[in-house]
Design brief:
330 residues, alpha/beta, eight-stranded mixed beta sheet, four-stranded parallel beta sheet, 9 helices, 16 strands, binds aspartic acid
Length: 330
């Protein structure tokens, strides 16, 4: 029997038209409807949830989107979400956690060139996402430029090129070939069975460390009510402590129950705070390594955990435990 698929549109370039204010998502979904090529025998339902540039997709929209997917997941065999590319990795991250345990595929996609424009990459991306949604995989994925990636491992790496997303520190889940969409089942993380936890906190701050940055910046962040800080540090996880002692500030905040996680400014591989003195001092001060997680996956995991737990130790314990493929087993 053919599969029942649902396509939820949220806006982005894929749904955009040129206006006097620049490219902007429109509410007319006729182009999208016409461009969807489902696998044979499948039937497709379209639902427009938003018509937003993804820069305007924030925790409020994540909650609405996740609630809607959860409410429809019993009625469809697979769900495609069309989304702007700019923040798609964040949405893929938070949905991976909120909908952890989902028994169907949820596949995000978008495009660099709007539907209907010459050379648009939208039809190919949609086709790949629809085929993935009709496949027997489960979890949250991102389909782009012929590649199927685990949602919590995808990062946007190009502003203009068609090959805009990459799976970081994790093999592809599938790829388009002469035979269609090949799925690599060995790459799928072990499925988890747990009820959905659709909640999020916006009290996580992402800070990119720069040479000479004044540690007092963290006091300013605290004054705004943030409760967790993700620091993109240097290389494998270096934090300065000469001239301006950033590590001392980390120790002060950690002792006040603030969660401080260190990831790397490098896209590939991992942070490891045990390698250098500049990492060990941060580790001794109470910082935790994000391991091989992407910043997007680490940031959204903290947002999700912060909404559920109060205690620093509890948040950290869950943060470093693999859930849906976002972090390698220690
Ligand atoms: N600004 C657009 C968005 O993220 C870019 C895109 O979709 O490619 O909504």
């Amino acid at each position: 029997m053919g599969k029942h698929l649902l396509l939820i549109s949220t806006g982005g370039t894929i749904a955009s038209v040129p206006t006097r204010q620049g490219l902007s998502p429109c509410t007319d979904d006729s182009l999208l409807r016409a461009a969807c090529q489902c696998p044979p025998g499948c039937c497709l339902t379209l639902k427009q949830l938003f018509a937003l540039d993804s820069s305007n997709i924030q925790p409020e929209e994540w909650l609405q989107l996740a609630e809607f997917i959860a409410s429809q997941s019993g009625r469809y065999d697979g769900i495609v979400v069309t989304h702007g590319t700019d923040t798609m990795a964040y949405t893929a991250g938070i949905l991976s956690y909120m909908l952890c345990g989902i028994h169907i595929p949820v596949v995000l996609t978008g495009s660099q060139i709007p539907l209907g424009q010459p050379f648009s990459d939208a039809p190919m991306n949609l086709q790949c996402a629809l085929h993935a949604a009709a496949s027997p995989i489960r979890g949250v994925f991102l389909a782009f430029a012929g590649k199927l990636m685990l949602g919590c491992r995808a990062v946007k790496i190009r502003t203009c090129g068609m090959n805009a997303f990459e799976s970081i520190n994790y093999p592809l889940i599938g790829q388009v070939s002469l035979h269609g969409l090949d799925i690599y089942e060995n790459a799928l993380p072990t499925p988890v069975h747990q009820p959905f936890r659709i909640q999020v906190s916006d009290r996580v701050f992402l800070l990119k460390l720069t040479p000479g940055l004044d540690p007092a910046i963290l006091d300013a962040v605290m004054a705004l009510g943030y409760r967790a800080i993700l620091i993109e540090a240097f290389g494998i996880g270096g934090v300065h402590f000469l001239h301006r002692n950033f590590c001392q500030k980390i120790a002060q905040l950690s002792s006040r129950g603030i969660v401080i996680v260190i990831s790397s400014q490098c896209l590939y591989e991992k942070s490891d705070l045990t390698q250098y003195e500049v990492g060990r001092v941060a580790l001794a001060a109470g910082a935790v390594s994000a391991g091989d997680m992407t910043s997007e996956a680490a940031f959204t995991k903290l947002m999700w955990l912060l909404s559920q737990y109060r205690e620093r130790d509890e948040i950290i314990q869950h943060f470093v435990s693999p859930l849906c493929g976002e972090i390698a087993f220690p």
